[in-house]
Amino acid sequence: MTIKNLAQKVIVKVFKMGIRNSAKAVIVKDGKLLTIKLHENGGTYYILPGGGQKHGENLHQALECREELGAEVEIGELIFVREYIGENHELAAYHSHAHQTEFMFLCNVNQDTFNDGDSPDKGQIGTEWLPITELLDYKLYPQALRTHLISFFVSGKATSFVGDIN
């Protein structure tokens, strides 16, 4: 096999794996963060609502929350960017192939209660408002984001690029 052929195979493999983008909604009301509550593998945890970006779709379109919340959101400013390189984290055995960049936007929603929407996430058992000042008491993923969220909403200061965190 020539170096050129080997290089082409590597490029094709990298291209197929790709980096996935997703957009997440950071929705806060009365000092509480709106989250998706999930129960999988014997445990309960929380994530931010949002979705993966599809080809031909911009990030605002990817932030469709109707599927998970049953509600439309008003998208505001970009406040955090997170990378997730699966092989670097606790679930590497399952996610070693994953490489995702998440764009987290400050959003508003005009309702207080939600249903599971049109097609909720696997394991989704509802939504829950978590007190910002108590986020460290909850299993909110990515867990390292909790301190950034607290800092942003309590002091108005936070790093916007949070890096490869879990």
UniProtKB/TrEMBL annotation:
Domain Nudix hydrolase: 26-142
Cofactor(s) demanded: Mg(2+)
UniProtKB keywords: Hydrolase
CDD domains to which the protein is assigned, alphabetical: NUDIX_ADPRase (cd18880)
Domain of life: Bacteria
GO MF annotation list: hydrolase activity
InterPro entries the UniProt entry points to: NUDIX_hydrolase-like_dom_sf, NUDIX_hydrolase_dom
Pfam families linked to this entry: NUDIX
Gene3D superfamilies: Nucleoside Triphosphate Pyrophosphohydrolase
Name by which UniProt lists this protein: NUDIX domain-containing protein
